[in-house]
Amino acid sequence: MTLHFNILKKDSATKARLGRLITAHGAVETPAFMPVGTQGTVKAVLPRDLKELGCQILLGNTYHLYLRPGAELVRKLGGLHGFMAWDGPILTDSGGYQVFSLAAMRTVSDEGVRFQSHLDGSTHLLTPEKVMEIQEALGSDIAMVLDECVPHDAQRTYVQMSTERTVRWAERCLRVRRKEDQLVFGIIQGGMFEELRQWCVSEMQALSFDGYAVGGLGVGEGEALLQSIGSFTAELLPEDRPRYLMGVGRPEDIVSAVRAGFDLFDCVIPTRNARNGTLFTSQGKLSIKRAEFTGDPRPLDPDCGCYCCRNFSRAYLRHLYLAGEILSAQLNSLHNLYFYHRLMERCREAIREGRWEDGVSLPGIEGDRKDTFIQEES
Ligand SMILES: [Zn+2]
Q1: What is the whole-number distance in angstroms between the Cα of residue 120 and the centre of ligand 1?
Q2: How many Å apart are CA 279 and CA 300, to the nearest integer?
Q3: 336: CA distance to ligand 1 center in Å?
Q4: Residues assigned a catalytic role
């Protein structure tokens, strides 16, 4: 029994659960999606609009904020909440993932990870203690431990060594934890090896974190492995703690993961795709740049109630995109985030009303599985 997470209802046909996560800045109804606010902003979306579209919690990137403008500066200006004027819950990642995906010249040792900034080439050392100190200065409601995210095709010997190190790092993170109202989540690694995932869960569970994240998935391993390793790991995690599937975010993947018992999600897909002109609708994905929309007076998605769909035509959105107007990114991001938040709302409703066994009605999702996401590059 924990005070910060209550399961309100469990679905009888699947592993899906309806829950409430309590943080220092308010409650989050789960399953929930967290828009990614990389540099202290969800790209092209005002905090006011995030609130309005039903966003409950944001994700902030420690790596980016540490390098620029610096965690101490953010602390002095009211923490991340005050700095970016978002008074709801914030989860910060540990920066590990960005070090492994963005930074140059990184060397990993037991001490931590040394790397060169992708901004100016300066050298930095992130240790488990340091990432906790940074997240404390940022003042997030949920902090993540430092972990190493290994490539999906890494050799077993490397994955084992790395997973053991991730556990030792997690232990060190807990030891320096000082901020009482900040929840700390452990991260389960172990690559594509079930026995390593299992070992990692038992070690992390012994450390007793406030929640558990599953990392190292959605990194190119393919849908079959994502689902099998994801649901295998979810089942091992303690029932009474929130479960966060890191970085996995195609709508159909989220729905599968909710079924497998995950509660929290984050991904850049809705905002990044929006800026690339790829939009999620109840009829499937749509690329706004296509010539067929040149004179199309219809809204993007007639079934969507967002500000964008209530006011603008496909023809106008296509024009904005082709003209490179800033408003294109704004309206498209607003719509895609609205779509994601409605999707989560539908998942919560289905669990609440025990409708999941009849199949959650997810127009544009279930029929869209074979479609590939072609616009996911930066
Ligand atoms: Zn819309």
Answers
A1: 39
A2: 8
A3: 7
A4: 93, 266
Cα separation, 170 vs 146, in Å, equals 7
Helices (H), the chain: 47-52, 62-67, 71-76, 79-84, 96-101, 128-138, 156-175, 194-207, 223-236, 251-260, 269-275, 307-311, 314-322, 326-352
pTM, 2 dp: 0.95
CA–CA–CA angle 306, 29, 248 (5° rounding): 75
Q: Which residues surround ligand 1, an ion (CB under 5 A)?
A: 304, 306, 308-309, 335
Rounded to 5 degrees, φ, ψ at 264 are -130, 145
Coil, helix or strand for 14?
Answer: coil
Burial of 289 (0-12, 13-18, 19+ CB in 10 A): middle
Q: For position 104, what pLDDT does the model report?
A: 73
Place of tokens 């209530």: 310
DSSP 330: H
- d(CA 261, ligand 1 centre) in Å: 28
CA distance 99 to 101: 6
| Digit-coded pLDDT (tens) for 148-175 | 989 999 999 999 999 999 999 999 999 9
Distance in Å, CA 339 to ligand 1 centroid: 7
φ/ψ (deg, to 5) at 364: 85, -5
Distance 306 CA to ligand 1 centre (A): 4
- Cα of first residue to Cα of last residue in the chain, in angstroms, is 42
**Rounded distance between C-alpha atoms, residue 261 and residue 235, angstroms:** 7
Contact 115, 58 (CB under 8 A): no
Residue 138: which residues within 8 A CB-CB, separation 6 or more?
60, 62, 65, 71, 74, 75, 79, 80, 90, 92
Asked whether 55 and 87 are in contact (CB, 8 A), the reply is no
Dump pLDDT digits (tens) for 56-103: 999 999 999 999 999 999 999 999 999 999 999 999 999 888 888 887
Task: Please spell the DSSP secondary structure of 154-180, one letter per residue.
Answer: --HHHHHHHHHHHHHHHHHHHHT---T
